[in-house]
Amino acid sequence: MGVGFVVGVLGVLILSHAAYSTIQYRALLKITEEEFSGPPINVVVELIAGLMLCMWAALTVPGKFLSILPHSDENRVVALPENLDFMIFNHRGKAIPMGIDAKLK
Amino acid sequence: MAGRVDSDKLKEKASDNLNDLPTFNAENMQNNAKVMYYSRTFMSIIGGVVAGILGLTGLMGFVFYFLIMGITSAGLAAKAGFSIHSYFDSWNKILLDGFFGGLMSFVLFWTFAYDIVHIF
Q: Do the chains contact at B28 and A15, CB–CB below 8 Å?
C-alpha cells in the first residue's frame, strides 16, 4: 500500500510537471505566433512515463484479487452453515475455556 | 431391500452432490469487483488528464480513452495471473465491467486539463 501510493503520487507529479511545461510551450508559441500541433517530444516522453507509473499504481494500490472458488485453500471456513438452525448452545463447550480461532472472520 | 439402498447412499461423498461451482464466494467476488472499479476509475481520470495535456480534440480523445481502457483491461488480466476463473466468473466481467462508467470521469478530466493547459 505504501509503495504503490508513493508511485502514484510521483506519477501525478510528473503529469503536472508535463502540464506546466506544455503551458510554457504554448506561451512561447503565442509569442512566435505559431500553431499548436502537439507538445514537444520531451513532454510526450514525460507523459508516457507518468502514465506508466500511474498505471502501475492503479493496478497495485486498490488491493489483491481474492479467490472466489468455494473449495480453494483460503476459503475453507465459508462452508459452515451460518443460520441459527444449526447452532446448538446447550452443550459441554461451556466447560472449556474460550480459545476460539480467529479464522471464522 | 431398504438397507441396500441406504448403504449405496452412504457410499456417496458429500462433494458428489455439490453442484457448488455456480455459487461462488460472494464476498470475494464483491472485493474483486471493487478493486477493478477503483483501478478503472483511477486510470480513466489519469487518461483524461493526459488527453487534455496532449491537446486531443473530438474523436481522437475517445480513441485514446478506448486505448487506455484496453491497456487497463490487459493489466487487470495480468494481475489476475491470466487464470481468470479463480477470481471472476466470466471473461466479460474483466473486460467490460466499468468500461462506460469511466467514460464520464474521462471526459470531465479531459475538458478540465484541456482548459487549464490550452485556454488559460
A: no
